[in-house]
Design a protein that fits this description.
Strand order of the largest sheet: 2-3-6-4
CATH architecture: 2-Layer Sandwich
Radius of gyration: 21 Å
Number of helices: 8
CATH topology: Gyrase A, domain 2
Largest sheet: 4 strands, antiparallel
Number of strands: 6
Number of domains: 1
Order of helices and strands: EEHHEHEEHHEHHH
Strand content: 15-25%
Structural class: alpha+beta
CATH class: Alpha Beta
């Protein structure tokens, strides 16, 4: 068994995205003549400030998320998106499972130790089922919510803002907040004019 941390990676969407959004947005005002090499940032900040967020739907980002299965079930509830996810029906974990380290037991080593023990038991159960002739889609019935999964998700920028506003909120589940914080930090790094006004709620 391997214990890993949740992580994210931007796969596509950052190239020329701001220029595309500006061209689309300026169509509304017939102000294309104001486009310069550096005008997209301020234009986008202003339309977001005015609540004209439909314009940023012209851009999208694709992200690979590595999280546990439980978190992935929350993620796919966001419907204006496209998803491709690692399948437990077809992937055979006979060499050992990977699980995501829970982010909420730093102050409770006893609970964390028990969790590790239960993950070991589950891994042995899965391997025993495979060895007894079960197929991966049959043996997966014993796999835990903590099982690592990879999910590639594509959303337009307006939907990403919606996702981050909801999932960074303090009442969200700690593990989806962990993912949302990682995404927000990366997005603010690469597209500050679109995501710079969002914050992590403590």
């Amino acid at each position: 068994m391997k214990i890993i941390k949740a992580s994210i990676e931007i796969l596509a969407g950052t190239s020329n995205i701001l220029q595309t959004i500006e061209k689309a947005g300026r169509t509304c005002y017939k102000s294309e003549s104001k486009i310069t090499d550096n005008s997209a940032d301020n234009f986008i900040k202003n339309i977001i400030k005015r609540g004209h967020e439909s314009v940023i739907e012209h851009g999208s980002l694709t992200v690979r998320v590595i999280c546990d299965r439980g978190v992935s079930h929350e993620i796919v509830r966001h419907r204006i998106a496209s998803y491709s996810q690692e399948s437990t029906r077809y992937v055979n974990y006979k060499e050992g499972i990977e699980v995501i380290k829970p982010c909420f037991w730093e102050d409770n080593p006893q609970a964390y130790h028990l969790w590790e023990q239960y993950m070991d038991v589950i891994e042995r159960g899965y391997k025993n089922l495979i060895e007894s002739g079960a197929t991966p889609e049959q043996a997966r019935t014993v796999l835990p919510n903590s099982l690592k999964t990879e999910i590639v998700m594509t959303m337009n920028l307006r939907e990403w803002r919606h996702f981050l506003k909801i999932r960074c909120e303090k009442h969200s589940h700690p593990q989806i907040r962990e993912i949302a914080f990682l995404i927000l930090e990366k997005f603010q790094d690469v597209l500050p004019s679109v995501f710079g006004d969002l914050s992590k709620e403590k």
